Amino acid sequence: MEGDPDLQFLLKGGDLLKVLSPSWKKTRFLRLQDDCKTMWRESKKTFKSCQTFPVADIQEVRMGRQSEGLKKNAEEQAECRCFSIVFKGRRKNLDLIASSEEESKQWIKSLQKLPSSTTHWGSRRQSRHTHTHTHTHTRIWIFSCLRKADKNKDDKLSPSEVKSFLRLINIEMDDDYADMLFKKCDKSNSGYLDGEEIAHLYDLLTNREEIDVIYGEYAKTTGFMSADNLVGFLMKEQREKATLADAQKIIEKYEPDEQAKEKKLLSKDGFLMYLHNVEAMILNPEHSEVYQDMQQPLNHYFISSSHNTYLTEDQLKGPSSTEGYVRALLKGCRCVELDCWDGSDNEPVIYHGYTLTSKILFKDAIKAIKENAFKTSDYPVILSLENHCSLEQQVVMAQHMSSILGSALVTSPLGDNMPTNFPSPEELKGKFLIKGKRLQKLEATFANKAADADSVDVTEEEESNDESAEEEQKEKRKKKLKLAKELSDMVIYCKSVHFHSFKDARKTLSFYEMSSFKEGRAVKLADESANDYIRHNVEKLSRVYPAGSRTNSSNYDPVPLWNAGCQIVALNFQTGCKEMDVNQGRFVVNGNCGYVLKPSYMRDRSTEFDPITLTRGEWLKHKILHIMIISAQQLPKVNKKKSSIVDPLVRVQIFGVPADVAEKETSPVDNNGFNPAWNENFQFDVYVPDLALVRFVIEDYDSTSDNEFVGQYTLPFNSLKMGYRHVPLLNKNGDLLPSAGLFIHAMVLDEE
């Protein structure tokens, strides 16, 4: 059969006229692929991709105008040139007209030979696998969704029915894109889609050439991926330890077509659905749960922390709201700040002192905190009090916390004896810790040296608002504040004290005595004495807060402070910005519980680690990160008012120790937010992977002004999965953009 002329004819192929209506007759090039199992047809339209169908799907080949379509749509005189390919299942016939009677007979004769001879030919020819686009079975699944979407059963889809069809096939789509696609497919300008127009819509929606290519590489089983093929893909491309059972589970879970599923095969649509699910995303799914040791002392973790949590806008005149607490806590924040001042009717209030920001009642804030503290995370919440109240109202504060928080409030050390170290987040689950001033050392309560007085003077330490007014601030700090014993007694593990020097802290401070550092001072210490700072933070907690000059609620870069071991790096959660993206990326892992364990060399009293000088040590694990930015899907319009579509470019940024900080960007793609493709490769050296974060940012390129932000995603370097991965995209508030995504290939290699 090797030299069979009928087979040779099919392998060479030829042009045929495809008939859909009396006026719709288009040329299609049809041929048999080299695998002898798949027919290939190519459209002359530029936008339409080639389509294939398995030979096995052909039920029969009919001569002449026998099909309903040809009877209705082809002229009588073309009778001898007509033939139809009839498919198994619900797929529509392919009605064709050849250029001559001879040619028509040759097509019919050759095609009729096919189904019975396929096995014979296939085994004789060295089957060279070519990339196949298997629509057939999928179409049946799509067809059932179409019937559901076609509410009024007229076999046509209106724009609103198209939108419900998109929802049924799990394609989230922005209205602008849905309208654009509708117009592209509605060739007849009738205001609805029918027949081939609907097929065209489906092709446009699922046309991901870059994924076709990957699928084609591995779909070695009658144009499908078998469980075996899928294991090959998972191990070779995705660098995952995968078994046959794992692959079968994936097929069972993601294959939409029942026939393929029964045969344990994965169609291209199933493959696409698998690549879009959470398990196959860029973030290691094992890290999206709590996976770290939560039994270490509290100060051995980075803690997601908010500054002036009550503000929802700027620091001078913006509104204060309990909503600020709710939002921060639901985002996994575990340390919130309360600026407390005397209010009327003996009710303390929270606002940004000496400014025009509005006020909220202290008790309302505590209620909002209690209601929302443990919805996202079970781990402890620290209430950082900045107390400016009179003795009288401090007592009211203590009463409110006691009555509202009840037994969840830690008011004495967990054990019976004087503790020598912090309890762990695990031991403090569901608990609130108060950070504030204390009248005496905790040790005194155990030594029964408790002062008889109800209150004693302590120095008021407040966040200073202006870098330039240092002298004035020094005077201000000397002001004596009366502290109510009731409030003082609630401070157990987080006693606020003034920081003088690392040496002084080592000598005079107990483990629970912690300092707050203004951003400027903290950055200077992290820069000049990083190792001292790291050692200080092995024993104690440190809180860093933004400079008072940031009246617009902007943020500072938290990374150098994490590199110095600071646990409570407080940011303005209400401000969408790169720094908050990085904060969200740092804490997106470990179940978004707000606590991330520091590397072991930042939990060791005698550590030599210094992020600036980077001497040799266990922290140095030189990796090379290869990133290929392949494509993006359905990027939102940046400017609703502008009719222009985005010109997207992708920026890849590495944050971490100074040696690792880097940034590279692709060139922009003109006017395409629907499916821009870049295929650009980048390479990064990462020396301290434990502290590194990777950020993908998409921007709308503008040659005349700053690029506009479209979406981003940040994650820890060590949580990055290798291979072909979709990257979800978040908006500037850190919320998911439901239909948008970035598609990349990532590879991490050890530097020899």
Short synopsis of the structure:
This protein has 752 residues and is α+β, with helices and mostly antiparallel strands.
The shape is elongated
Beta fraction: 15-25%
Catalogue the unreliable spans.
116-140, 449-454, 466-472
Secondary structure category: alpha+beta
Largest sheet: 11 strands, mixed
C-alpha Rg (nearest Å)? 33 Å
How confident is the prediction overall: mean pLDDT?
A: 85
Write down how many β-strands occur, each being a DSSP E stretch of 2 or more residues: 32
The strand line-up of the biggest sheet is 15-14-13-16-17-20-21-22-23-12-24
Number of helices: 23
What is the share of helical residues? 25-40%
Alpha-carbon distance between the termini? 54 Å
Layout of secondary structure:
Elements: H1 5-12, E1 14-19, E2 25-32, E3 38-43, E4 51-54, E5 58-63, H2 68-73, E6 82-87, E7 94-97, H3 101-124, H4 136-149, E8 156-157, H5 159-168, H6 175-185, E9 193-194, H7 195-206, H8 209-218, E10 225-226, H9 227-236, H10 244-254, H11 258-262, E11 265-266, H12 268-276, E12 301-306, H13 322-330, E13 335-341, E14 349-350, E15 360-361, H14 362-372, E16 381-387, H15 391-405, E17 432-436, H16 442-446, E18 455-459, H17 470-477, E19 480-484, H18 485-488, E20 494-496, H19 502-508, E21 513-518, H20 519-528, H21 530-539, E22 542-545, H22 559-563, E23 568-571, H23 578-587, E24 595-597, E25 623-633, E26 648-655, E27 662-665, E28 677-686, E29 693-700, E30 708-716, E31 723-730, E32 736-750
Parallel strand pairs: 12-23, 13-16, 16-17, 17-20, 20-21, 21-22, 22-23
Antiparallel strand pairs: 1-2, 1-7, 2-3, 3-4, 5-6, 6-7, 8-9, 10-11, 12-24, 13-14, 14-15, 18-19, 25-28, 25-32, 26-27, 26-29, 29-30, 31-32
Helix pairs in contact: 1-3, 4-5, 6-7, 9-10, 10-12, 13-14, 14-15
Cofactor: Ca(2+)
Enzyme class: hydrolase
Region (Disordered): 453-475
